[in-house]
Protein: DegT/DnrJ/EryC1/StrS family aminotransferase
Organism: Christiangramia oceanisediminis
Amino acid sequence: MIQVTKTFLPPKEEYEAILQQVWDSNQIANGGKLHQKLTQRLKDYLNVSNIVLTTNGTLPLQIALKTIAGAGEVITTPFSYVATASAIVWEGFKPVFVDICPEYLTIDESRIEAAITENTRAILATHVFGNPCNLEKISEIAEKYKLRVIYDAAHAFGVQYKGKSIFKFGDISTCSFHATKPFHTGEGGAMFCRDQSLFEELFYRHNFGHKGQLEFQGLGINAKMSELQAAMGMAVLPYVEQIKEDKKTVYAWYDENLDFEQIRKQVLRPGASLNYSYYPIILSNEKLLLKIEKELNLKNIFPRRYFYPSLNNLPYVRKVDMPVSESIASRILCLPLYSGLREEEVRTISRIINSNLKE
């Protein structure tokens, strides 16, 4: 069976050796030694100054939204994982959807200003499949209207834009360390920001609001990463570059074998690097997608429809038309891509797709 992705597991003995430190310290939570080590190593690897590790990748979105004063509207994309929109609703804000660029698949920055009202509090945009948004234009709009910018960078671990970590842009960036991601802690995530006072707020909010052991600085929640998660992160991080190279090779095999007469790919934004986490293809129509998906499934190959349906059709948001997002969501398919996928398997997948394009 070939799934859309496969979790990278480090050598068991290496993970167990790191876990032994947990047994030695008898501390399994609350910022133990492994948590501290992983925080510093990620700072060094990503070249960032502030990072808060969390127990999953959704709580960072919720905490980031909680830093916005008052209620109101948050401008966001309809083309992302459901957590992007649900976090907005969960925190009491109203999502205002802006359609996407058909090439980059990120929020269409040219449409953002028209969606701003006196109730707008922030822009929450997604770097789709790790492809950065138009960072300069969004920053310009946010500064003009005094809006906070939050980036859902769940897919963007290790991505750089013009030589800088993608996590250095916006007021707050969030990331997922879920098992399907290029770097993972099993479950897990992180928040990044440049401003020190904002970092301190994110930190206390992820730890029940604690200022010290007996004091509380403000409202918080429990989003702390455990030592067991940190241990997995410490075991996986040394392999991240090799994982990336392996996926880059698989990515190139698809490029060589797929017939692009009726398929198109997401356009990479100039100045951005790829982390090779996804290989999305955009087909001409949904009927063709369903046909290809069925033929692949019959061969025990399971691609995935990221992101379907378009988030403007969720049952708990106000329905609005997002024609580009809805069109892309109906005919985009992410192909299997992971370290260990063999060239012959990529050729088989490509052959099945190509043969169905010609019929």
